[in-house]
Amino acid sequence: MVGGDVRAAQLFVEQLPDRWRDRTVRTDAGSRHAGADLDGLDDVTVQAVAEVADRRARDVIDRYRAQRSDRSAPTGLAEVVAGLQRGQLDTVLMVDDASSTDTLWISPDDPNLVAVDEQTLRDLGVAHPQEVRADAALLRAIAGTGTRLVLVSPDDVPLEHGIGGVLRYADASTVGS
User: Fold this and answer.
1) What is the CATH number for 89?
2) Is residue 22 domain-resident?
3) For residue 119, is it within any domain?
């Protein structure tokens, strides 16, 4: 977000690397002239951030739908957990549902280890798996694997158990392969 004097903003933006220049939003709000109102800059910034977030969410939903059409995108807890375990997921789409009673199993020591059942973790050498709310386990695994998270409305896209994933890559173990 670049605001203030029009010429100074233009010169500033011209000095940015291309990758940042393309992401710059210019506004005349926030000028330093006497009596300038910084609330205008705040409003423009909030609006620009909301538009970028909305555009990114739509892009992820479109990618998910494309992968679902060829049956490769995981949906539901078991498929998303399997994708997280293999490091296959680029992005997880999740409906923020505080009323969910779904649970998963985690390793208390390794945030990357998450499973739909206790025995899977025991087979991986976890001595004391813990059963936790699915959303908490998923957030922990998402952060641990560097996967992105996009919260969606149930009206945006149908997701089994309120969760789905966009793949980084597909292999023989992928659902539609």
Assistant:
1) 3.30.1330
2) no
3) yes
Give 54-61 contacts, CB < 8 A, sequence gap 24+: 56/150, 57/150, 57/152, 57/156, 60/91, 60/93, 60/148, 60/150, 60/166, 61/93, 61/150, 61/152, 61/156, 61/157
> 73 to each of 65, 88, 108, how far by Cα in Å?
8, 10, 28
What would the pLDDT profile of 68-88 be if each residue is shown by its tens digit? Answer: 998 889 999 999 999 999 889
Q: What is the pLDDT of residue 176?
A: 54
DSSP letter, residue 163: E
Tell me, yes or no, if the pTM score tops 0.70.
yes
Question: How many domains are there within the chain?
Answer: 1
Domain extent for 119: 72-167
Model confidence pLDDT, tens digit, residues 85-140: 988 999 999 998 888 888 999 999 998 899 999 999 999 999 999 999 998 999 99
In a domain, 47, yes or no: no
Please, how many CA atoms are within 13 Å of residue 101, restricted to the half-sphere of its CB?
A: 0
Q: Which two tokens stand for residue 169?
A: 């890559």
Q: Which of 1, 40, 43 has the alpha carbon at shortest distance from 24?
A: 1
29-37: average pLDDT: 59
